[in-house]
Design a protein that fits this description.
This protein is mostly helical and 400 residues long. It has helices spanning 3-11, 29-48, 84-97, 102-112, 127-159, 168-181, 193-207, 220-232, 237-249, 253-280, 297-306, 315-328, 335-353, 367-370, 377-388.
Length: 400
């Protein structure tokens, strides 16, 4: 089989026959053993550290935050409504629907609700508010259903390019994608920017194919979807940056130019947004609390668990699931598998450094794209164990 055929196979996610040893086949036993030990330690730690804010309830007992009655049911009060962020976004949507301009009211509205407007990045980009106002309640539901179905269909096709397991991996992986994407149907969260940005990232990732020297890739549809996600929430930027890095690495010059241009346009638009906000900020406006709070592993796990359907699991299961969703991508012997690992691990590292407890919903930006990774986890672990050549397990063959 020629080299060109092998490269093409790798682009669509399949592992060529010559590479059945897995990603770790060329590793020394010592390196494999060190990584295996580190993985074991991280998994055990993830079973111990909390994935919920101290004092919060299990979702089985009602909403995890906000005022509740004696039975644990959420209670809205004029003084402190449940999910105050969403209440603010809903008001913005309603005012736009009535014909008001976002920048005419957003700073006074946010200030009046005792939300910081300084720094200006605390004021959301207006994209989603205008989209939701234009769609209306029914349109938002239709859009959420369409996005979820598109994610599922895209990953069904993508995982179908993985030839092994007689279709088992495809069926299981798509079912997990559904679990990850289904949170997008919760109408209560439709005004939440991270909900839509996360779904769009999952769709963009599924649509993308990494080419080499401008050949064999598919990126235009993924680019358009990612651009919309970035216009909705700036937390999409790490995904776009990683796309640009991979395009440069693979010498896909046209694609890399497109991603770089998108980044420059975004920064120009963000600067314009901040300048408009700054005109309405008063000297008396308080600064928002810092986002760099160094929560460590708890920040990573809590963000992903609490903003996904993993929140229904006890923490000693939910935490390891996040780790295996991230590590599992390395079991997919393709450039996309490496991309998936770096994407999930990169957001994980960011959440360990930045974000307060009340920013847990940031995890919704990456959670939908993570779920497919766990389907490759058994293969990744088996390949790593085989590379480690542990006594008594020397005959273990890497999973295909």
């Amino acid at each position: 089989m020629g080299t060109d055929v092998l490269d093409t196979s790798d682009l669509i996610g399949a592992r060529p026959p010559a590479q059945t040893g897995g990603r770790f086949a060329s590793w020394s036993p010592l390196l494999a053993r060190l990584v295996l030990a580190a993985l074991l330690v991280v998994v055990i730690a993830s079973m111990i550290v909390p994935t919920n804010k101290p004092g919060n309830r299990s979702p089985w007992l009602g909403p995890v935050e906000g005022p509740v009655d004696a039975g644990g049911k959420a209670v809205d009060t004029p003084e402190k409504p449940y999910d105050e962020d969403i209440a603010l976004y809903e008001v913005a949507i309603e005012r736009i629907a009535k014909g008001e301009s976002y920048y005419d009211f957003i700073v006074p509205e946010q200030r009046g609700r005792d939300y910081p407007v300084n720094p200006g990045i605390a004021v959301r980009l207006p994209t989603l508010a205008y989209i939701d106002a234009w769609l209306g309640k029914t349109g938002q539901l239709v859009a959420a259903i369409a996005l979820m179905l598109a994610i599922i269909a895209t990953w069904w096709q993508r995982l179908g390019e993985e030839p092994e397991d007689g279709g088992r991996l495809r069926r299981l992986g798509t079912a997990l994608v559904f679990v990850g994407a289904s949170l997008g149907l919760n109408r209560h969260y439709f005004p939440l920017h991270e909900l839509w940005a996360g779904g769009l990232i999952a769709l963009s990732f599924g649509l993308h194919r990494i080419g080499h020297r401008g050949q064999g890739g598919r990126w235009v549809a993924a680019f358009a979807v990612a651009a919309l996600a970035l216009a909705i929430r700036e937390h999409t930027l790490p995904y776009v940056l990683l796309m640009a890095v991979f395009a440069l690495w693979q010498r896909n010059w046209r694609e890399s130019a497109a991603w770089i241009a998108l980044i420059l346009v975004f920064f120009a638009a963000l600067t314009w947004h901040l300048e408009i906000i700054a005109r309405d900020v008063l000297a008396s406006d308080r600064h928002g609390p810092p986002w760099l709070v160094m929560r460590g592993m708890t920040g990573w796990l809590a963000n992903v668990v609490q903003s996904s359907n993993l929140r229904w699991l006890p923490h000693f299961l939910a935490g390891p699931a996040v780790i295996l969703m991230t590590f599992g991508w390395l079991g997919w012997r393709s450039r996309s598998g490496l991309f998936g690992f770096l994407l999930c691990a990169g957001y994980g590292a960011a959440f360990m450094i930045a974000g307060r407890w009340d920013n847990f919903y940031w995890g919704a930006v990456i959670a939908p794209a993570m779920f497919a990774g766990i389907v490759f986890a058994p293969r990744a672990v088996a390949q790593l164990v085989a590379a480690a050549r542990l006594p008594g397990l020397s005959r273990l063959q890497p999973a295909n």
